[in-house]
Amino acid sequence: MQGLFVLAIVALLGRAMKAPPNAIAAILALIWAGFTAGHLFFKNPDAPLRAISGGSLTLWLAVGAAGAVGFAVWTVLRQRR
């Protein structure tokens, strides 16, 4: 369940920052891929299935923070144009 909360928070953050839907989708996909890679690193065979429904809250928070940093970088790059 933690994974769904992190994805929802990052999606809401993206909407609040007025990010385009494709940027939000790309960052959410990167978060999911990062979490799945983390599970695979720990040799969990159910990684793709557990990536959305649960898992380590610490890992989700770390990957969610990376997503938030991604939005911040996107915002800075957008303002430079």
Give the rounded overall mean pLDDT: 70
Structural class: mainly alpha
| Element-by-element helix/strand order | HHHH
Instruction: Label the overall shape.
Output: elongated
Q: How large is the count of helical segments?
A: 4
Low-confidence stretches: none
Q: Give the termini distance in whole angstroms.
A: 38 Å
Sheet bearing the most strands, described?
none
Kindly state the number of beta strands.
0
Q: Nearest-angstrom radius of gyration?
A: 13 Å
The number of domains is: 1
Helix content: over 70%
What share of the residues does DSSP label as strand, in percent? under 5%
Topology, element by element:
Elements: H1 2-16, H2 21-41, H3 47-53, H4 57-80
Helix pairs in contact: 1-2, 1-4, 2-3, 2-4
